[in-house]
Request: fold
Amino acid sequence: MIRLVKDRLCEDIKMIAVTYSMGDAITDIMPIADVSNRGVRSIEGAGEKTGGGARVFDAVKSSGIPAVVIPGIHAGCDIDERFRIFSHGASPEKVGIAYHAHNKGSSDFVVSDISSNTVTLAVGGGRIIGAIDACIFAPGAHHGPIDLEAIRRIDAGQCTANQAFMNAGALKRTRFKSIEELLSNNDRESELALGTIALFAAMEIESMQVLLREHGNEGDVYTAGSIGEVVAGRIGRLIRRDVRSLGTWSAAVGCAEIARDVYGGANHILGIRVA
Reply:
């Protein structure tokens, strides 16, 4: 795909904004040539490793097309310092989602990306001020926080912590094996799973409104992701406010908007410095 883009569309592409893994070794939006180890401290951690992201990153880097790398949100970033109690808050593509929401006209908002897992960011005054990662609170379909049962299994050597995280989502007590299977059904089991995801996402969103109020204002609420657009209405009823869905492509669109604006001379994106 990258070869096809390079051969046929290279002259039409002014800049690419790249995300990779956790993005926890950088704090600025940086030229890809200046980024070591693809911008991560380690590829180990919460999530499945397939190698596809590394191949795309390296292909973009060698393509000659101008490219920048977006950092994740982590303890080294310029966020509310209390959030530094957690080493990591959000992977880099979530910055793209937040920027897409910002370009909808919001400077104060909460956005929750809900699919295999749930990650929620708070933006106050046009700056990312906090993020709650997938392994901390609200579960998604497949991934979620490690509970007492999982801790016991890890300590007993029955699974790794990453395996426990990967199987801690709302589907773990259902017959469904995939998001597609969940969304294609309309029975009590699927309703319970979606209701569980919506409830905890709503609680996570409301917790971020507490942060925003302390920084000045409550904010608009957005969802993203394949489940986010399905449960937006449920979340809205739970938190008693309008919830707008950004759709399933909001990360890609938002990263393209970052590339466009960095190419146009932007110095900061949601408070993240452009190096």
